[in-house]
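This section describes the prediction task in plain terms. A model, or a person checking by hand, is given the sequence of a single protein chain and must write out its three-dimensional structure as a string of tokens. No templates, partner chains or ligands are provided. The sample shown here is typical of the held-out split.
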Amino acid sequence: EKIEDSLFNDMKSLREISLTGNEIYYLDKEATKNLTSLETFKLDKNKFGLINLRIENLEKVDVLNMNNNYIKVLKSFTFKNTKKIGLLDLTFNNMIDIEYNAFYSLE
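The expected answer:
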């Protein structure tokens, strides 16, 4: 399944999204641009091969759950402009590489 860029356009006040177990392999990085109130984002048990989110737009996210996917590499600056995430769950992804500065700017 794919999630295109316009899915969450009119959901600025949404605080929690759970897309657990939906066989999603692609989430357009622009899909999260208006989710400025989002606090919990659950994308676990899907088929993501990489984190392709505009995390910098998710200023209020405290929980980001992406466990049980197919993420093998965490790219540099994945969390660029993100100040704080209380819980980041990437367990059970068969991670083989975490690039330098992947967590850049996280406190």
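For orientation: The chain has a mean pLDDT of 88.
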